[in-house]
């Protein structure tokens, strides 16, 4: 029960008025960006990074945690009211959620999403508090070869599992790894890929890359598709649930949590798969046969799964320093911005930060429930903001953030270059996550590889010298061999649960 | 498009709300008196995710029922373009409309500065007479 005491200690230091304020700001901002499709928590955190450098790391992370959970929850509102999922994790919620809203049960759908998110988030956070220290204890003894293998696993899994095309995934990954190479080689002092530009020697600022790809890329993409047929929002009042709804929801909540947490914690990352599995399970288990016509189980399960996986993501991030989602990558780069090295030592060296962060996740989760139940009608109004005004604001913050880090106009030019790259990636359907992971994990992987090779004197066999590394490589091999099968199963299941395509450009 | 009715066309700037409803009332009244056909224009700039003034399927179906019930020649035009007032004016010009009917929204000066006014743009830009009506009035 030592962990529990530490968590209580964290709760104590997180519960200052200032930190509560940051948590509230984070939750509100997070819901804001979650509600609007195309803008996710990763972009919001990237935009906020420069603003938070002045804050204590603890306060900044409390805000980010609120943002992350808020963003996860906000996506469900759009899914339910508009049938336009704000992000991939909410796609499954839209299936039953929007049908419920059309049948006049939108208030219950929103309520089950909110309460389910709260329960899954709370259980998930407690599981993180329980598992991460144990994992970190084990991880401290891991050598460079195992770390290298883990990172290869994370990259291969995110590149091939998510998204439809492995080729596109790898294209994005190698773009990211290349971007990660830019700058001074720390071992030999040689400049790499700098093209004689002095500002590039210093390595690329991850803020500029992330903001360029996420914010500028999305803004340019939206500008190219400005006019779309407006969607119809189903009017709802305050979310509430009847006794029957509670009875039908609680089991899916728990099952969704059970699906979401392990998937979030695995390097395979992402909430796409667990929400999907949760939806399929609920549909199989349903005895009422109202699936496809607005079954509350179909909202409760996936929403819980999506928040539980959001919590699960913190396990590899805190215990190993391995990000598995775009949001985790940006959070990790924020840690680095504070001069804190992520990794298994984080749990011991910065224990106060970690426990306060975990405690603030619990607080953020509670605030989310308190704020969102009464505010739901207000969030729906956000959807009326015209895109030109909205993206003008985002562009302003993007440029401000890029400039503020170094006060160098060169960064604005870089931002634009990455914005154009982001636009091209969206145009050609390249996933963004492998690129960001590549930028973050590339240099880490390189240093582990070099470390291992230095010890062995350049012999590559050292990469197989640890049992864990061998197991991981076998897993990767099995996974790559089994991929065609997985893809087929998923494609069949997805066909049986088709999502209405977003209505395309009209004129 | 059916052949031009004897009295020409009336163009209505319509939205699925009380302002559109009252504009439609007056347009149908005029069409009956002067043997005119009614063209309903519903447009959106399409730059926000949600636009309440852009009718969705059920609302269009109801509009269609109302128009069919009036037994006047009619047409519904729905479009997404940067300039909503321009869509109305273009339609009026194309059909050589005899009358445009708009529902007038109340706007404070600041509100008008921020939101613009479709009705004002139609009033200033139209070549034919414009009838502007407010909710609460009924054609006698």
Q: If you had to describe this structure to a student in words, what would you say it looks like?
A:
Chain B: This is Universal stress protein. Chain B: InterPro entries: Rossmann-like_a/b/a_fold (IPR014729), Universal_stress_UspA (IPR006015), UspA (IPR006016). Chain B: Belongs to the universal stress protein A family. Chain B: It comes from Nocardioides luteus. Chain B: Residues 11-134 form the UspA domain. Chain A: It comes from Nocardioides luteus. The complex is a heterodimer of chains A (507) and B (140). Chain A is mostly helical and 507 residues long. Chain A contains 21 helices and 2 strands. A two-stranded antiparallel sheet of chain A has the order 1-2. In chain A, α3 packs across α18 (387-406). Chain A is globular and about 65 Å long. Mean pLDDT of chain A is 83; it is low at 499-507. With 140 residues, chain B is α/β, with parallel strands linked by helices. Chain B has one domain (9-133): Rossmann fold. In chain B, strands 3-2-1-4-5 form a 5-stranded parallel β-sheet, with helices on both faces. In chain B, α1 links the parallel β1 (9-13) and β2. The model of chain B has no long low-confidence stretch (mean pLDDT 87). The interface between A and B is medium-sized, with 20 and 15 residues.
């Amino acid at each position: 029960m030592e962990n529990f005491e530490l968590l209580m200690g964290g709760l104590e230091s997180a519960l200052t008025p200032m930190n509560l304020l940051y948590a509230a700001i984070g939750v509100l901002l997070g819901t804001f960006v979650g509600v609007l499709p195309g803008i996710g928590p990763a972009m919001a955190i990237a935009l906020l990074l420069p603003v938070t450098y002045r804050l204590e790391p603890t306060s900044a992370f409390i805000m980010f945690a609120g943002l992350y959970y808020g963003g996860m929850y906000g996506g469900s509102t759009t899914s339910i009211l508009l049938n336009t999922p704000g992000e991939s994790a909410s796609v499954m919620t839209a299936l039953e959620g929007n049908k419920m809203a059309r049948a006049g049960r939108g208030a219950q759908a929103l309520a089950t999403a909110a309460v389910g998110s709260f329960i899954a988030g709370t259980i998930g956070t407690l599981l993180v508090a329980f598992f991460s220290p144990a994992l970190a204890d084990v991880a401290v003894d891991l050598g460079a070869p195992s770390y290298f293998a883990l990172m290869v696993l994370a990259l291969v899994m995110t590149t091939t599992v998510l998204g439809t095309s492995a080729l596109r995934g790898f294209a994005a990954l190698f773009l990211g790894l290349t971007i990660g190479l830019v700058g001074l080689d720390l071992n030999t002092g040689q400049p790499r890929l700098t093209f004689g530009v002095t500002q590039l020697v210093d390595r690329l600022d991850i803020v500029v890359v992330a903001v360029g790809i996420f914010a500028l890329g999305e803004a340019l993409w939206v500008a190219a598709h400005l006019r779309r047929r407006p969607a119809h929002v189903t009017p709802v009042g305050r979310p509430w649930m009847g006794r029957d709804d509670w009875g039908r929801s609680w089991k899916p909540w728990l099952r969704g949590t059970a699906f979401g947490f392990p998937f979030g914690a695995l390097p395979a990352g992402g909430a796409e798969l667990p929400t999907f599995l949760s939806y399929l399970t609920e549909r199989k288990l349903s005895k009422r046969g109202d699936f496809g016509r607005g079954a509350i189980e179909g909202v409760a399960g996936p929403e819980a799964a999506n928040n539980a996986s959001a919590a699960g993501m913190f396990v590899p991030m805190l215990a190993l320093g391995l990000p598995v989602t775009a949001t985790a990558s940006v959070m990790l780069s924020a840690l680095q911005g504070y001069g804190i090295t992520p990794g298994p030592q984080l749990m011991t060296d910065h224990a106060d930060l970690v426990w306060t962060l975990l405690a603030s996740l619990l607080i953020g989760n509670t605030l989310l429930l308190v704020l969102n139940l009464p505010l739901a009608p207000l969030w729906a109004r956000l959807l009326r903001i015209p895109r030109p005004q909205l993206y003008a604001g985002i562009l302003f913050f993007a440029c401000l953030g890029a400039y503020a880090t170094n006060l160098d106009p060169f960064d604005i030019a870089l931002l634009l270059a990455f914005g154009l790259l982001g636009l091209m990636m969206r145009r050609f359907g390249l996933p963004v996550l492998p690129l960001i992971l590549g930028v973050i994990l590339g240099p880490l992987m390189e240093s582990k590889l070099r470390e291992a090779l230095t010890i062995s004197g350049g012999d590559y066999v050292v990469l197989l010298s640890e049992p864990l590394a061998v197991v991981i490589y076998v897993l990767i091999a099995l996974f790559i061999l089994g991929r065609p099968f997985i893809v087929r199963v998923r494609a069949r299941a997805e066909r049986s649960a088709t999502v209405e395509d977003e209505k395309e450009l009209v004129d | 498009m059916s052949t031009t009715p004897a009295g020409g066309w009336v163009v209505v700037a319509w939205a699925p709300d009380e302002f559109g409803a009252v504009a439609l009332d007056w347009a149908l009244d005029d069409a009956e008196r002067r043997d005119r056909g009614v063209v309903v224009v519903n447009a959106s700039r399409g730059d926000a995710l949600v636009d309440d003034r852009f009718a969705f399927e059920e609302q269009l179906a109801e509009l269609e029922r109302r128009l069919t019930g009036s037994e006047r020649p009619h047409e519904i035009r729905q479009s997404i373009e940067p300039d909503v007032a321009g869509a109305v004016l273009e339609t009026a010009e194309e059909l050589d409309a005899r009358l445009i009917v708009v529902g007038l929204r109340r706007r404070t000066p600041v509100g008008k500065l921020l939101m613009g006014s479709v009705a004002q743009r139609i009033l200033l830009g139209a070549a034919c007479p414009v009838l502007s009506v407010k909710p609460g009035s009924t054609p006698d």
